[in-house]
């Protein structure tokens, strides 16, 4: 959240030069404050686990947030009780008339399917288009980031022969971007995917900018110029044991198991994993909520369509 300081205080220029968000008294006095409305389109089969991971990150902020869990179809989830879905999830059709300050679209285990082969692709495309009219800022995670790149910009992913799995070092490319406020120049984040879109492919889209990348994992964070589309190719929400559980699952399936890189001490899966990404994940979500959502969303969400593209109204 911003620091409110007196106008003309010399510290203001210093703090702004360090990419620290400050707010003068006039702007603070004209703020309209209400709970944020955030939707989560959960595409993961184990929905309860994903809910916990995302809600943990969303809760690490002083902002009050109302959350709607959204499902894309009525098919019975593979790893989630139907009773849970019926009790806590909204069909997209039931919230299609609503407007949201923020929307999170999760990854999905659909790496080897062409987008058009995904059984709910038509609905997915409808939701992506809907988000441009009904959502201030949308955060796309992993598979959803690639799917949104394909839908909005016709950028195709390539598929790796082996899964990219592990915790990789990333470099901040634009330390003055709002999403990266407070980041160290280098940070760690988990990846678990077959899909790949190069940094050059992101950079070729005039509307987008790559904000963080890894020598091993490639582009990690990209955003549109107006911050209404944010693409994260990894999993900042992962729990400490998530990559381990995925690895154990693959060992017991027909999927070739890939030992997660830079995750176990000495690459020994018997040892407890190194956890060095959770503070970055928390900061990324806090920055997204504050700078891409709260600082830009209109107080009256009915004005969202006319408000698109305007900045700094908070």
Largest sheet: 10 strands, mixed
By CATH, the architecture of the domain at 32-159 and 192-239 and 285-307 is named 3-Layer(aba) Sandwich
Which structural class fits the helix and strand makeup? Answer: alpha/beta
Element-level helix/strand string: EHEHEHEHEHEHEHEEHEEEHHH
Helix content: 25-40%
Describe, in plain words, how this protein is organized in 3D.
It is a single chain. This protein is of the alpha/beta class. The chain has a domain at 32-159 and 192-239 and 285-307: Class I glutamine amidotransferase (GATase) domain (Rossmann fold, 3-Layer(aba) Sandwich). It has helices spanning 10-17, 25-29, 47-58, 82-88, 92-95, 121-134, 143-153, 199-203, 242-251, 278-294, 304-307; strands spanning 3-4, 22-23, 36-41, 65-71, 89-91, 100-105, 135-141, 158-172, 186-196, 208-214, 218-224, 229-232. The strands form two sheets. Strands 5-4-3-6-7-12-11-10-8-9 form a ten-stranded mixed sheet. A two-stranded parallel sheet has the order 1-2. The longest helix has 17 residues, at 278-294. The chain starts with a strand and ends in a 7-residue tail after the last helix.
Task: Looking at this protein, list some descriptive labels.
single chain; cytoplasm; Rossmann fold; globular; two-stranded parallel ribbon; EC 2.3.1.46; alpha/beta; 11 helices; disordered C terminus; 314 residues; Homoserine O-succinyltransferase; Class_I_gatase-like; 10-stranded mixed beta sheet
């Amino acid at each position: 959240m911003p620091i409110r300081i007196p106008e003309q205080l010399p510290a203001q220029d210093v703090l702004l030069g360090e990419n620290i968000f400050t707010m003068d008294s006039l702007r603070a006095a004209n703020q309209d404050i209400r709970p944020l409305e955030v939707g989560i389109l959960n595409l993961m089969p184990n929905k309860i686990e994903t809910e916990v991971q995302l809600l943990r990150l969303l809760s690490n902020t002083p902002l009050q947030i109302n959350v709607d869990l959204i499902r894309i179809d009525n098919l019975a989830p593979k790893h989630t009780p139907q009773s849970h879905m019926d009790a806590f999830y909204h069909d997209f059709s039931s919230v299609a008339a609503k407007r949201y300050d923020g929307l999170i679209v999760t990854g999905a285990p659909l790496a080897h399917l062409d987008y058009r082969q995904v059984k709910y692709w038509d609905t997915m495309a409808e939701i992506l288009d809907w988000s441009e009219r009904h959502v201030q800022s949308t955060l796309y995670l992993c598979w959803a980031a690639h799917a949104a790149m394909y839908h909005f910009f016709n950028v195709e992913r390539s598929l790796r022969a082996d899964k990219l799995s592990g915790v990789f070092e990333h470099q901040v490319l634009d330390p003055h971007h709002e999403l990266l406020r407070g980041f160290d120049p280098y940070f760690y984040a988990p990846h678990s995917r077959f899909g790949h879109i190069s940094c050059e492919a992101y950079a070729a889209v005039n509307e987008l900018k790559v904000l963080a990348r890894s020598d091993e994992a490639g582009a990690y964070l990209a955003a549109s110029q107006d911050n209404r589309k944010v693409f994260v190719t990894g999993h900042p929400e992962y729990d400490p044991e998530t990559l381990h559980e995925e690895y154990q699952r693959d060992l017991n399936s027909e999927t070739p198991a890939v030992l997660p890189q830079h995750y176990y001490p000495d690459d020994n899966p018997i040892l407890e994993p190194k956890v060095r990404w959770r503070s970055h994940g928390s900061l990324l979500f806090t920055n997204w909520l504050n700078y891409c959502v709260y600082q830009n969303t209109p107080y009256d969400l009915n004005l969202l369509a006319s408000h698109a593209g305007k900045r700094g109204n908070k």
